[in-house]
TrEMBL record:
Pfam families: SBP_bac_5. The keyword Signal applies. Transmembrane segments: none annotated. Residues 91-481 form the Solute-binding protein family domain. This is ABC transporter substrate-binding protein. It comes from Streptomyces silvisoli. PANTHER family: ABC TRANSPORTER SUBSTRATE-BINDING PROTEIN, PERIPLASMIC BINDING COMPONENT OF ABC TRANSPORTER.
Length: 569
């Protein structure tokens, strides 16, 4: 996943997807030249105004969903996300490959064939060997930062250290000819086509590999090449790759001639510049800065500005986490009482109101692609059910209530902070549960809640999707085999139920996404009844774009404006 501190993140993840997915207020090309619906034109310069630099701009080191936003302008991959509005945008489509992959009967072998006519920015051909090398170099310790799946999924990859130390490479990635690549997996993985959207599947010509300096000028396989990379991505300038062809790429539109990415900006400054739209800012967007409640209130009174707000939902859930090894949270009745006591109306208001957060009763995000099935194992209504909570506390042996400590971040930036914690505290008070708040500095907080040795009993957390499927959402949190005792652990409840583990394996064998989604939804309900977490809300994202921006596309995979589709007036 690509990173952005203003997008809620997985607690403690090495990096996070810059993806925001869900139902989106999106626009497509129409006629005329007035507003984002106007017919797109080729040419001009698109400016991107961001807080975070596009640092470590190396396909080996990026952690993206669907290939990311800016990265996917330079790095093509075997597959990619469909660049269309709404739910159809959650589909995987071919990119460098002719299709989304051919699996073996048990989904442990995946075969891909490359399209004809693929070229780098220098006109040289892209080969299957370049893709194999690109994946292998992501194992090099000095190029770490990408997703963890390769080491876990590929046969013989567990201890591989990359081609700089082991030039032999991985036997589990075969390239029988220049246009064929075959992957051998340790276990069935029906979601492999989704992983193949990651930038690690971008081709890297071995002769042009400069190691850690490759980020300064990675060799483009996409519609744009890097012409300037200042201060490790603080200022990135892209121009057209003359050898990219829409004949081999029907996803990226690549309308602008130049893309100017400016980072290190204050969020208020970004939104003010987009609002005012002076000079180059009229043709500007942001890929990492959301509008806040006060800004939305101001925009609501301006029809023109309100028409320049794109709305999307990332596959993400903010929740209360329990460590079931810590008393009193080892008692299911206590956890159920807390689930009934939570006042989600207060929590949603603390998150910015219903325009920025949707109350959650499911762990899976509220999008069909994840397998979302509406249910509430502890139906307490929007304001909670204190009476039911007190009843459960009595059954648990706490007739006079109890006192617990809720650990949270000292920062509200990721919505794990004092605002949400106080809203939870107020709701539980009505049920006789006294909540003491324990604020930790952001860096220390992430470390504390993802370490088995220091994990508190009760804390605020959240999880975002590496791709729009139930697997990467449920498995890291509830698969007992993913409990990490000497590193970052996300299975906070430390659940290790063989039947749950087996069900995860069974669903992973399914290569039909719709069929798998239904089963992920059923598993979500089954786990939900154990009150191992209490879902709070699914965030909503609203972002402003410049007045000269055309062809706004927001898919249910990313939930944000797709810069590969944007045109400027």
């Amino acid at each position: 996943m690509s990173r952005s501190p203003r997008i809620p993140r997985r607690i403690g993840a090495a990096a996070v997807t810059v993806a925001l997915a869900g139902g989106a207020a999106a626009c497509g090309p129409k006629s005329g030249d007035a507003g984002a619906d106007a017919a797109p034109h080729r040419g001009g310069t698109l400016t991107i105004l961001n807080q975070d630099p596009q640092d470590r701009f190396d396909p080996a080191r990026e952690y993206t969903s669907g290939g990311g936003n800016v990265p996917s302008l330079v790095f093509r991959t075997l597959t990619t996300r469909a660049r269309v509005n709404g739910a159809p945008g959650t589909k995987v489509v071919p990119d460098l490959a002719t299709d989304t992959g051919t699996p073996s009967k048990d989904a442990t072998v995946w075969t891909y064939h490359l399209k004809d006519g693929l070229k780098y920015e220098d006109g040289s051909p892209i080969t299957s060997g370049d893709i194999k090398y690109g994946i292998e170099r992501s194992f090099a310790p000095e190029l770490s930062g990408g997703p963890p799946y390769f080491r876990d999924w590929l046969v013989g990859a567990e201890n591989y250290q990359g081609p700089y130390k082991d030039s032999k490479g991985l036997d589990s990635i075969e390239t029988p000819d220049a246009r064929t690549i075959v992957f051998h997996l340790n276990k069935p993985e029906g979601d492999f086509p989704y992983l193949a959207t990651a930038t690690q599947f971008a081709p890297v010509p071995k002769a042009k590999d400069t190691g850690v300096k490759y980020a300064e000028h990675p060799i483009s396989s996409g519609p744009y090449e890097v012409v300037k990379n200042e201060n490790d991505g603080a200022h990135l300038v892209l121009k057209r790759n003359p050898y990219w062809s829409s004949k081999t790429d029907d996803q990226r539109k690549a309308y602008p001639d130049t893309i100017d990415v400016q980072s290190g900006l204050d969020p208020a400054v970004i939104n003010q510049r987009l609002s005012t739209g002076s000079g180059a800012d009229a043709a500007a967007v942001t890929t990492d800065t959301n509008l806040g409640p006060s800004e939305l209130a101001q925009i609501g009174n301006d029809k023109e500005l309100a028409g320049r707000v794109g709305t999307g939902h990332f596959g993400y859930t903010n929740y209360l986490a329990f460590n079931t090894k810590v008393k009193p949270f080892d008692n299911p009745k206590v956890r159920e009482a807390i689930a009934y006591a939570v006042n989600r109306t207060s929590v949603v208001n603390a998150a910015g109101g219903s325009s920025l957060a949707e109350a959650a009763t499911t762990f899976l995000p509220n999008q069909p692609t994840f397998g979302y099935t509406p249910y509430d194992p502890f139906p307490a209504g929007p304001n909670g059910d204190p009476a039911k909570a007190k009843e459960l506390l009595k059954e648990a042996g706490y007739p006079n209530g109890l006192t617990v400590t809720l650990t949270h971040s000292s920062s509200n930036a990721d919505q794990y902070g004092p605002d949400i914690a106080t809203a939870v505290q107020d709701g539980l008070k009505a049920a006789g549960i006294t909540v003491k708040l324990n604020a930790l500095q952001q860096s220390g907080y992430r470390q504390a809640v993802t370490s088995v040795s220091s994990e508190p009993g009760f804390f605020l957390s959240g999880w975002g999707a590496d791709w729009p499927s139930g697997g990467p959402f449920l498995a890291p949190i509830f698969d007992g085999r993913q409990i990490v005792t000497n590193g970052s652990n996300f299975n906070s409840a430390q659940l290790n139920d063989p039947s749950v583990n087996d069900e995860i394996d069974a669903i992973n064998k399914i290569t039909d996404h719709a069929t798998a989604a239904k089963q992920w939804g059923a598993l979500d309900q089954r786990i939900g009844r154990q009150a191992l977490v209490v879902p709070l809300f699914h965030p909503v994202y609203k972002r402003l774009y410049g007045k000269d921006i055309r062809n706004v596309v927001i898919s249910d995979w990313t939930g944000v404006l797709d810069v590969s589709q944007v045109a400027v007036k």
